[in-house]
Amino acid sequence: MAALQNWNKTNSYSLFERIEHHDQDDYHHSTLIDSIKRNLYKILNERPDGCQSARQLGVIDLNDATMSTNELNSLICSSIQKCIEDYEPRISSAFVQARQGDDPLTLLFHVTAYIDDSRISFDVKLDHQQKYQLF
Questions:
Q1: Residues of 3-34 as b/e, b for ≥16 C-beta within 10 angstroms?
Q2: From CA 103, how far away is CA 130, in angstroms rounded?
Q3: Quick one: which of 76, 85, 119, 123 could link to 135 by a disulfide (CB 3.0–4.6 Å)?
Q4: Closest to 87 in 3D by CA, of 119, 120, 49, 39
């Protein structure tokens, strides 16, 4: 029962809604993407060595102040890409690029990923509470 403690019903659909819309490709595709984004949110916000069964899970720690901005962006991009490809089995490959946002202190990344033959893209932003948000 411990696995049900963190279950959030707000973004899920009822059994009858899923059965009713079973034949609609758009419905299936959007629920698949929502499911992937929820999983990636958990994966990216885990800290390395925070999970005993998967020590490499999570994005690198940003407290290394000796790196330049370009080096840090490159390292975070490769870390995000590795997490996505290693821990989200529905994605076959991913490409991550650093982006310049409105605020120069905000870390923003654009992800292009492939699910079967479909291409999806979304943005990942590190907020002020050190959490990765997916848009």
A1: eeeeeeeeeeeeeeeeeeeeeeeeeeeebebe
A2: 15
A3: 123
A4: 39
Domains of the chain: 15-134 (3.10.450.40)
- For 42, phi then psi, to 5°, come to -70, -40
Q: For residues 113 and 119, is the Cβ–Cβ distance under 8 A?
A: yes
Both structure tokens of 65: 């102040």
Alpha-carbon distance of 57 to 42, in angstroms, equals 10
Note down pLDDT in tens along the chain; length 135 residues: 444 445 444 546 666 666 665 555 555 667 888 999 999 999 898 876 666 666 667 787 776 556 777 788 888 999 999 999 998 999 999 999 999 877 777 789 999 999 888 899 999 998 888 889 998
Helical spans, DSSP H, in the chain: 15-20, 25-44, 69-87
pTM: 0.72
Q: Which residues touch 87 (CB under 8 Å, ≥6 apart)? A: 43, 54, 57
